Amino acid sequence: MYFVTFILKNLTRRPIRTVLTVLGLTVALGSMLGLLGVTKNFRSSLSETFEQRRVDLVIVRKGAAFQLNSEIPQSVVDQVKKWPEIEAIDAALVDMSEMQTREPRSPDDIPPSRTVLVQGWLPENFGFGDMDVTDGRALTKDDEGHHRAMLGSSLAASLKKKPGDTITILQKKFEIVGVFNTPSFYEREGVLTILKDYQELSGRKGVVTGFSVRVKKVTPDPDAEVEAVRQKMMTIKDEHDKPVELAPDRPEKYLDNASHLKITTAMAWMVTSIAILIGVIGMLNTMVMSVLERTQEIGILRAVGWPRSRIVRMVLGEAVVLALAAAFFGSLAAIAGTYLMALSPKVQGFIQPGIAWSVIAQGTAMTIAIGIIGGLYPAFRAARLLPTEALRHD
User: Fold this and answer.
1) CA 259 to CA 59: how far, in whole Å?
2) Closest CA to 213 of 69, 120, 94, 92
3) Is residue 287 within 8 Å of 379, Cβ to Cβ?
4) What pLDDT score was predicted for residue 257?
5) How far apart are CA 311 and CA 372, in angstroms?
């Protein structure tokens, strides 16, 4: 206990440098955790949705640079529906669209708008059976052609909309018939409408962004059945007998290959690498200065019998305490930052606030590593000091 108290006293003797070092590491860690957390949240939300809906395969157009740019002829979906191996199918046209946040107050009034995730679904999508309709009703085949929509629960709450109200998307009014809740944060912040209506409105008639399927499991080897369907989809042809380049994958592999996730993950790790480098340099500078200023003190400790290993533990202990303080405040900053960003109209609905505990643990481990790496050289430098040389140091 005395040794820990001694380390803490060493740090509090130079409060300004200690605070600045912790602050620098906090900024580096906060930015790192923020990006890693957003990426993790996005992947976890999609993964949970696929798991709840018991999706076996996710299919998009092969070679699409971005999943939202994928276009598959709806005739392919109609063809797959008829396969005896398919239990259910869920097709959607997914898009980012402009939505007015309120009705015009006068003929000259231009209401503010925000970008929302809009999904056009087939009325028979199995996703309707897995969602929780909290107000109103679900969309049906009878709604086709009437421009009706459902709102995710979070979006409905932020807009203060309910069944019977209207929203305007791409300059077209939609009547709200229901509010729904799902495990997906992005669906809760989005709009759901009938596929055909949104195809016509967005100028993408006869196409879907992608679809997912449940495969009938009738043998003791369900994985082989899913793989057989996946292979069959790779040879599918359209109504003109031309091969359709599809990329059917298991949900986890789809998430691994998703271009938007790859981009955000790459950005997160790039920022992480820079943050680690800055953290190590900052820690190294702080601990070297600390050792130089305390050369005589270290000489006295060596003269009274402190072994070199204890000197190393002291310096590394100070570095680790600084790192732990930065990990605590950096985690708080990252969590608060995601909540603040989620309130911004420009990104509202696209950033899920909060940081997963696994990401915080990962960031804390990295910060401790920064402390150890940054403190190694000063620690061994201090341990190599001879008592006589240290005591003569001015």
Assistant:
1) 14
2) 92
3) yes
4) 77
5) 14
Tell me the two tokens of residue 108. Answer: 């000259």
Strand ranges in 101-154 using DSSP code E only, listed in sequence order = 113-121, 132-136, 148-152
pLDDT tens column, 239-249: 777 888 888 89
Distance CA 119, CA 204 (A): 13
Output the CA torsion sign for 178, 182, 186, 188: positive
* Total Cβ atoms within 10 A of residue 387: 16
SS3 call for 193: strand
Task: Show the low-confidence residues of the chain (pLDDT under 70).
Answer: 1, 64-68, 259-260, 344-350, 387-394
Q: Are 248 and 59 in contact (CB under 8 A)?
A: yes
**CB neighbours of residue 194 within 10 Å:** 25
Residue 67: how many CB atoms within 10 A of its CB? 19
Q: Which residues contact 218 (CB under 8 A, 6 or more apart)?
A: 225
> Nearest-CA neighbor of 232 among 87, 66, 89, 59?
59
What is the helix (H) or strand (E) element at residue 319, kind and residue range? Answer: helix 308-342
Q: Is the dihedral of CA 102, 103, 106, 108 positive or negative?
A: positive
